[in-house]
Amino acid sequence: MKKNILTICFYFPVFCNAVEFNTDVLGIEERGNVDLSVFSKKDYILPGKYILSIKVNKNIIPEQAVYFFRRNNEEDSAEACFTPEIVRRMGLKEKIQSEMSSWHGGECANVTQLNGAIVSHVINEGFIQLSIPQAWMEYSDPNWVPPSFWDNGVPALLLDYNLNVSSTKPVNKDQIIQADIYGTAGMNAGPWRLRADFQGQKSSGGRTGNFDWSRYYAYRALPSYGANFTVGENYLNSFLFDPFRYTGAAIESDDRMLPASLQGYAPEIRGIAKTNARVTVSQNSYVLYETTVAAGPFNIQDLNSGVRGKLDVRVEEQDGSVQAFQVSTAAVPYLTRPGRVRYKVSGGKLSTNQHDLDGPAFTSGEFSYGIDNSWSVFGGAVLAEKYNAQAVGIGRDLYQFGAVSLDVSRSMAYLPDHSDAQGYSVRVNYAKRFDDQNSEITFAGYRFSDREFMSMDDFISAGKIGMVGKNNKEMYTVTANKSFADLNLSAYLSYNHQTFWSGKKTEQISFSASKIFDLESIKGISANLAVEKKLDQEERSNSVLLSLSVPFGRGRSISYSGQQYEDKKYNTISYGDYQNASNTWQLTAGARETDQGNTELLRGYYSHSGDAGVLNLNASYERGEYSAVSASVRGGLTITEQGLALHKQNVSGGTRLMLDTSSLGGVPINGGQTHSNVWGKAVVGDINSYYRTSTTVDVNQLGDDAEAIAPVVDATLTEGAVGYRKFLLVQGSKLMAVLSFANGSHPPFGAAIADATGREVGLVGEQGAAYLTGVQPGGYFDVVWSSKKCRINIPLTINAEKTLALLCLSE
């Protein structure tokens, strides 16, 4: 019985409390050469410094140096010392922190004094686990990571880019080669993010070219205020007033710091491309987003949630034609949690895209206050020399009937002709989710502005050209979607109508529907209909597209598309291969019908998503019209003290996580979506700020000579941060060895064997026998027992199939 207990404790010491061993039951020859002190205490740990992360319930304090000390006598297992800085980041209530006792001369907080608190040391996997009852914690939302666990990341340099090159040869015309690039360069230092946006273009046909650093700015999170601070060149971010460019500073509440239920939305853009096309989204001539899409309907949903105001959308087709339209982004009614204030304060001077100060100095502020569960009030003002505007509004939660808000704005301007202009603008917003009908009106709004109402841009234009431009008169917008679960059918509708006092009018309506169905043995057939109509004084257009896609084996499909764009009709058949998510392609053949006859066309599309970025290739040919090829590369470069890596990145200058695979290259991460480079570094881009992100090593794809001790890491990063996490991986051979001293004796039975990182990898058995893992030629292991230690050096040449005789040298 006693031997069975010893066996359990030997292999599973976590289940054993303090025990004394009867070594007579051990079947070993040298009973006097035994050191089982490591098993005499539960979770026995030697004093020292360990690099560990700290898990507090579900949240994680990033990896750092943690010291272990013995509390009482020399035989006790060492305990983790939680310094005041570590305790501050645990998310405990302030009163609990102030009342907590300490030990080791006041350096270490006595966390275990909290009733119900449990500390578990999982050093071999690189962390300490704390289980603390929620009663002692400041925050109680299990799905939200509180600010005390947010990570500002490490110092870093970054360069994100999107490069596009195209060549178009119209029939009987000169070839046009065009290249354009945009992106962000930046540097991170502590909580600060320094950024410089750039964009450039070069065209052979027009012999024009330019490259501009379009914006310089810096920002940081202010967690204590639930806000961000920005300084430099910026655009006014407002729910109440139209945006304009300025140079100055701003402090703004950031909804992303709130639980998900209190956050805003990111606008989406829908349209129809009649060929393979490039879609560019910009605001005030500044490129926000650019991508390449295949012919057919497209839907852009990954814009930054902070985008506000009107967006300019440009669709450049490979046949040379261009579609251009505007999208008015909007937010659901401005409601705020009871007792909470959301605010935005800005100040500075208006500036141009050429970095010149051009316009009056101004101050701006707005707020929203939650009166109770149903009512919120909000308002704001923009104040400048010879111009000011004020707004006040109220929001109401109608519960099962949705939410609505009403606000009134007034502007007053002193014009160059010495006249005064005073006008009003009224706006109503409505939003409602119909859960029972599985449908949603994501936004419905109406705004009316009288003739004398002026935005800041209107005022500046009046000062430059001596007259007011086409100021807004009336605008209403509806965006709705509906799903029919029983029919596997979904529908989407968007309608935007806008008029101006100058007499001009713009109107756009988009409708799309999609259905998935089965036809006998063919599963997952999809049918899509998309209709788009634009009507304004300069341009009128209609687009209708009907497509049918039939799966053809796993990850492949054959599809038909019929499209009408103005007086042109397209009928095409495509074959697509999507078996490998990293390499997808599509071939299309068809004809274009016109009054003059039919024209054959061919198209090809290829996309490669690699570790270093995303490559898209397009080719189009239309007989008697044009031929075109294009390529785009999108990605990023991130450099830190720990290393560098090229990687995929959609959001320029955005949050990312650098991963260290312990100098092992080619390690698959997140199911093989990326791999570590030759230096053992990889970067996962487009991380959601302020939300916990888990990243994993795909252990099923690791080589036989590699082992993942801790294959999962977590991080919660502030906006723009470059996080750093290290996977605990071991690469090397697995072999049997016999350890001995120079005099022929052996280290004691039960002595611990640790690798170069201090991780315990094995124990010394009878007659010095040991099983070693992660053995690297030329490496070493330390053998530790009681207060003694010796080192074994691995030869440069080893044979894993033979037992290795190793000399243990005292240090």
Automatic annotation (TrEMBL):
GO cellular component, one term: cell outer membrane
Major site of localization recorded for this protein: membrane
Residue ranges the record marks as coiled coil: none
Keywords: Cell outer membrane, Fimbrium biogenesis, Membrane, Signal, Transmembrane, Transmembrane beta strand, Transport
Transmembrane regions: none
Pfam families given in the database record: PapC_C (PF13953), PapC_N (PF13954), Usher (PF00577)
Record protein name field: Outer membrane usher protein FimD/PapC
Organism per entry: Iodobacter fluviatilis
